[in-house]
Amino acid sequence: MGLIAPFNLPLELDALRALPSVHRVVRHLSDMKRIYHDQEAVAAILSAGDPPIYEFLELANPTSDDSLSFGLTRISPGKIGREYHMTKGHFHLNAGDEIYVGLAGRGLLVLQSRDGQGRELSMLPGSLCYVVTGWAHRTVNVGEDDLVFLSVWSATVEHDYETIDRHGFPQLVLADAGRVAVIRNERFTGR
Ligand SMILES: [Fe+2]
Prior knowledge:
Strand 4 and strand 5 form a beta hairpin. The chain is globular and about 50 Å long. The protein contains three helices and 15 strands. It has helices spanning about 15, 40-50, 160-165, and strands spanning about 25-30, 50-60, 70-75, 80, 85, 90, 100-105, 105-115, 120-125, 130, 135-140, 145-155, 160, 170-175, 180-185. It is mainly β and about 190 residues long. Fe (ii) ion binds near residues 98 and 153. Fe (ii) ion (FE2) binds near residues 90, 92, 98, 137 and 153.
């Protein structure tokens, strides 16, 4: 359903959860087990349960080509092996930029260009990251608490998850002796 009248809204998870037009998605480890590097750790965790990794509250707004869609995401803290909890990540199939605004917690926005170059941007409360068309994006919770952020994108954007499923990202974000380390992903098969 499109949003047809002006409105305002607190940037709070409970406020969005209560909206009738919200589309709520909870991704569990079993929904995204292939994207993690350490498949033995994935299997060990899944043998004991299927933890939720992130929650996405989306207000898609295809009222017109000029509309914006937005959503709040909450990624729980934790790791799969040494790799921090993260979203699946996607490219935009068509033109359309996106902004991210950190609201709580400490994150990294992991980016990948169409020619396979990697980049990372820090996500902190009150900071904005701008994603230019053509860069795939994934968010990683590198802190001890929930990572919560707002994202806003053009309502006409179509999402390409398949390329990431097939090729991965060129970088991995791991805990290394208590620090956050970004290393090269040897299994990356993109350009
Ligand atoms: Fe996006």
